Amino acid sequence: MLSELDQILSSGETALSHAASLQALEDARLLFLSKKGALASITERFKEVPKDQKPLFGKKLNEVKSRLETLWETRKGELEDAALESSVDATLPGRPVPRGSLHPLTQTLYRITDIFARMGFSLAEGPDIETEFNNFDALNTPSDHPARNEKDTFFVDLPGHPTEGKLLLRSQTSPVQIRVMKNSKPPLRIICPGRCYRRDEIDATHAASFHQVEGLVVSEGIGLADLKGTLEFFFKELLGDKTQIRFRPHFFPFTEPSFEVDVSTPLLAAKGKTWLEIMGCGMVDPAVFAAVGYDAERYTGYAFGMGVERLAMTLQGVPDLRHYEQNDLRFLSQFAG
Question: Does the predicted TM-score (pTM) go above 0.85?
Fold first, then answer.
């Protein structure tokens, strides 16, 4: 019976390895490996094998079965690959692979940070969930200020959090400035980009989540002229050499004096506008320096903050900031670099 196994192995190898089609391969499988095939038939005769030869016969039977099954699987894979290749029309043009690109807001943010990096500003980042002290108290924002109302700010509750006082989703990136000043000594020259959160009504120019870039410079002898020169250079680099800026007196709790900044640029003139309010700025209030342990008699500084979405809308001619969050490829692909 061992010779019969050798014969089955030899015939099976020939039939399986030389099968020219999937149907021929299936016929060979049925002939040798099915429940009614040659191997099944000889297995049923196992009881006829002399007792002393049964271990050898059983080992040989398993080897033959394993060999034929391996040949069947290998040949099946080869025939399926060949069938797939034959079904492909090599003369058809290839399908284009879509090219990815940075989001238009990310493109604008990179342009902003690149300009400030060339002016010697370092990048500083902080958490989205902030303490009430960093977001309001240290920034000289009084307890009765409207921004501290739950109608304007997203307060959060983290059970077991070790920090005393309320936690909130930061309403500005100014807390990053506080964190840096609490852990570093002047001179400082930083920008703080990041996402902010406010309970604003969502419309074409407002969103509950948006991006800011804020800046802070602290050293000895820093004055308003330094602030204005920095912003003039920045906006000319970002919006073009013909861009003009103007300061309008305003109020912010954390700067004194404080200003709103308007820009005038050919990009706006093409839309029939002359000036656009673009950001806030001012000289750092001494109360802020006191909150972080700085000597207000020795150091002065300036701070500014701008919305990335508003700048992107100006640069890219987008009328509604909601387009940036809708993930519509028809819109986003217009700005693919």
Answer: no
* Cβ count within 10 A of residue 6: 12
Cis peptide before 257 (omega within 30 of 0): yes
User: Measured between alpha carbons, how far is 255 from 130 in angstroms, rounded to an integer?
Assistant: 21
- Please, what is the end-to-end C-alpha distance for the chain in angstroms? 74
CATH fold group of domain 104-335: BirA Bifunctional Protein; domain 2 (3.30.930)
Rounded Cα distance, 294 and 288, in Å: 8
pLDDT in tens, 134-189: 999 999 999 888 888 888 899 988 777 665 568 999 999 999 999 999 999 999 99
In this structure, the strands spanning 188-197 and 122-123 are parallel
CB 153 within 8 A of CB 198: yes
Cα separation, 167 vs 157, in Å, equals 7
Sheet holding 300-307, edge to edge: 122-123, 188-197, 209-219, 300-307, 276-284, 255-264, 244-252
Reported as a single tens digit per residue, the pLDDT across 88-103 is 777 888 888 878 899 9
CB 39 within 8 A of CB 61: yes
> In this structure, what DSSP letter does residue 259 have?
E
| Peptide bond before residue 142 is cis, with ω within 30 degrees of 0 | no
β-pairing verdict for 255-264 and 244-252: antiparallel
State both tokens at 152. 């304007």
Cβ-based burial of 197 (10 A; exposed 0-12, middle 13-18, buried ≥19): buried
Tokens of 34: 């099915």
Give the tokens for residue 1: 């019976």
> How does DSSP classify residue 47?
G
**Stretch (H or E) spanning 211:** strand 209-219
